[in-house]
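Thread title: Can someone regenerate the structure for this chain?

I was given the following input by a collaborator and told the matching structure tokens would be attached. They weren't. Posting the sequence so someone can regenerate them.
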Amino acid sequence: MSVMTESPPQTGFNLPWSVALLLTAVGAVVLVAAIATTGKHSDPDANRYEKEATKLQNQMAEAEKALATEREKGKAPAAELIVLEERNKTDAGRLAMREVTLKELEEKNRQKIAQVQQQIEETKRQLESEKKQVSAQASPEDQERAKFTAAMGETQNAIVTIVSQGVVGTGFFISGFKQPTIITTAEVGTADQDLNIKLRNAENAGDNEPFDGTARRIYADKETGLVFLSYTPKEQGKVATLSRKTIREAQRGEKVVVIATLVHGGEHFGEFSASSGTVSNADVAKGDKKFLQLAVPTNTGSFGSPVLGLDAKLLGVVVGRVEGMEKSVFAIPATEIPKAITRLIEALSKQ
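Best answer:
Regenerated them for you:
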């Protein structure tokens, strides 16, 4: 009779297999003990049985070692898990501390922002108070001029100097045209040749040359004396304009400002003057034409200058002297400009 055995699996410890192996080994021990008690070895197979029993005992010892090894292996993951749990607890604590720190920083930032905003508001209040004090100390004329300058803003750069055959005058860009268009009067824009134009906001202001562009007459309105010029700049760029929406009727007695090219001894230097005065009469009739009569000091460069209210609205265009009334300054009412533009469009459509 022989006992068949199997080698332990090589892939690791398996608990059911270990138990079977242990039972087999116990059976072998019992068998050996039985043989030993006989005290005889007459059976030829006795030596073989003894060898098999010894082999089984060795296998049992190996199985016990394997079982102990697997138990130790089982303890290692558990220990690693404990270490990981401790790390997680530590990281969670650090995260909580960082969140607290972040909230503290956010609160500090909110406080700083509130302080800065409060300082800004306080500075604004101080500036307003200082402005009021300065305004209270300024003369009425200075206050009016400051009000006018603020109302004009960048639109004051729409005013230009026009030079034609030794005649120096003024004009201004008007809105509503694709091609930059200047309005002036017949005293300045009668020539059919190119007119030299100098912008008010040019970097070379203060010099009588070079000019910033040229303009050519495209329409002369006989009913008003207004002249329209098409402007061609030397360098392309956007020009400021006086808006048609700012046109309104002048009121008798209201204060006005005339911005004109400043001429000294027949020479201009790209400078402008702002003369203030009043409307003496808002409805002066001369033949079939109507004019504004102004009590404003002017010079020869005032022809074509815009007449502006203190609210920066366009009230008229200076035409110089009216026949028979040479001692007064007159202007074409700005309310005539839209009518002249309509006639301009009609005239161009027939060309």
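Residues 162 and 197 are 5 Å apart (CA to CA).
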